[in-house]
Amino acid sequence: MRETLELLRAGLPDHNIVIRPHPSERFEPWVERYAGCDRFHIMRAGNNLAWIMAAELVLHTSCTTGSEAALMERPVISLVPEGACVSHWYVSNRVNRVARTPHEAADLARRLLVEGEDVFAHGREARERDLSVYFSLDGPFSSHELIARDILGRFEGAIDASYRWRLEQVRVYRESIAESNKNDFDLGMLQSRLDLLEQVTPGFRKPTAQRIHDELFMLEGG
Question: Three-class SS of residue 213?
């Protein structure tokens, strides 16, 4: 990513470059490296969705941010080096244009932002198909319902589908500082989000929520 940023600085002389480190990353190394660089802005505050909507191009490394950008129809590139052994795990790499090297990523960015070329035409049909499948944008069932139906179908007859987990059976592990920094919501905030979903989503049945641990909740019913 750092090599890509240097190439972007040279190839996009009229653009600002906003760096938003992942919540699990240390913030200081990015500040130390880029805080004094012209046109570079290192940010962590604010909702990432607002930054995505305001961006002319989103560049990430196999992050959920890429899936969010695709759903919001924003230009997005995932930087996935050759040989990255877990890159196929991430939905974003199926629904985003992928660049294999820093030079390829920077070239795509320059062609899009400077020359106005539609660099996303290649593979667009397949990416849009995958997006509609993974997120169930059309059809009678939402994604979580399809996932639950598929799991039950695969284990039909082999498991007791009526079994209900009990909170005392859930093992709680001590979280790291990085994990605690990643999420900062509580049960009250979760309830308010569920209330909002109930107001704006036809047919949505609000589940009950219980707190299991910091930033970990169990949703039932709905």
Answer: strand
